[in-house]
Amino acid sequence: MKNNRKFNWVLLGFFVVTLVGCKTLQETAMSKKVTKPAGVTLLSEQEMRDTLVGNTYAGDSVRYPGSTYIEFIRPDGKIKGLWNGTDRYTGEWAISGNVICAKYPSTSNCSTMSKSGDTIYWYDLDGTTEGGYSKVTSGDSQNLGQ
User: Fold this and answer.
1) Of 18, 42, 52, 144, which has the most beta carbons under 10 Å away?
2) Number of structural domains the chain divides into
3) What tens digit of pLDDT does each residue of 88-132 get?
């Protein structure tokens, strides 16, 4: 019985350290520093929310040339996506200041953005345009939200 208690305390300590060391997406977004790209007006937190939440955006992947994505940003913090027209995926999002962070099953990233008409331009936090651009459509235009 005594050894079992010691194991329980070690296990509890592991979980406490694990939980304390984890940041939520919101905390991650809040902690990011942004280098503003030259000549670009970045969207504010409210402008980002108005542009993305409850809407769909689509584009060609810059990080994975030849690949396409479509994502619906649900108001509950979930992302529903379609990769290359066939592979469905899910993720989570959080916005703080002018930073959006997204977490997917195999990766995560934080970006900022500007907008011109129905096109949003994604910027890495160091000010580069590595994220490329996406076209925004109103609502769940691809029925991804289920």
Assistant:
1) 52
2) 1
3) 999 999 999 899 999 998 888 899 999 999 999 998 888 777 668
On whether the CB atoms of residues 44 and 34 are closer than 8 A, the answer is no
Helix (H, G, I), strand (E, B) or coil at 93: strand
User: Domain containing 48: what range?
Assistant: 24-137
Closest by Cα among 95, 118, 96, 113 to 43:
113
Among the listed residues 57, 79, 78, 80, the one whose alpha carbon sits nearest the alpha carbon of residue 68: 57
DSSP structural state of residue 35: P
Helix (H) / strand (E) element for 145: namely none
Where residue 100 sits, what CATH number does that domain have? Answer: 2.40.128.640
| pTM of the entire predicted model | 0.76
Residues 93-104: tens digit of each pLDDT? 999 989 999 999
